[in-house]
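In the design runs reported in the main text, the only information available to the sequence generator was the tokenized backbone. The following block is the verbatim input for one such run; it is reproduced so that readers can re-run the procedure and compare outputs position by position.
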């Protein structure tokens, strides 16, 4: 059964993060530059404090009329963060993401943040697995293997 570590091995362990003192505007600019829909919020020791996503911008900044130039990520981040471990199975991650209606799942334990997986990462991994299986079966059935 595939695990989170398999997804991280394929996509890499790059962590896009901000400090809680970052303004919403600066965080949104970083998200735009990096092409990501969420950032991990970490302190100076790289401890996970929260997650800041596009959804947070819409619900907690835009709709409430806060100024993104002066509002800090710490004031609008999601702090009730669900995490998983590198050995967590992808099926379990899918269940967590679906039940909690989240798209970003940090991979972390008490001491270390290993990365983050998204629902898109899980789907891409599964599609790649299926394509590999289809190629194998085609090769087996038609004698090209």
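Verbatim output:
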């Amino acid at each position: 059964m595939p695990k989170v570590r398999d997804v991280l091995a394929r996509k890499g362990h790059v962590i896009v993060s901000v400090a809680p003192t970052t303004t919403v505007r600066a965080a949104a600019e970083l998200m735009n530059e990096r092409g990501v829909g969420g950032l991990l919020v970490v302190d100076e020791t790289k401890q996970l404090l929260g997650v800041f996503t596009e959804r947070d911008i819409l619900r907690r900044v835009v709709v409430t009329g806060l100024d993104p130039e002066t509002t800090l990520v710490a004031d609008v981040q999601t702090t009730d963060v669900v995490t998983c471990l590198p050995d967590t199975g992808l099926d379990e991650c899918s269940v967590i993401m679906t039940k909690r209606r989240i798209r970003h799942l940090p991979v972390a334990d008490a001491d270390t943040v290993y990365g983050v997986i998204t629902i898109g990462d899980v789907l891409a991994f599964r599609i790649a697995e299926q394509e590999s299986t289809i190629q194998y079966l085609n090769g087996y059935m038609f004698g090209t293997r």
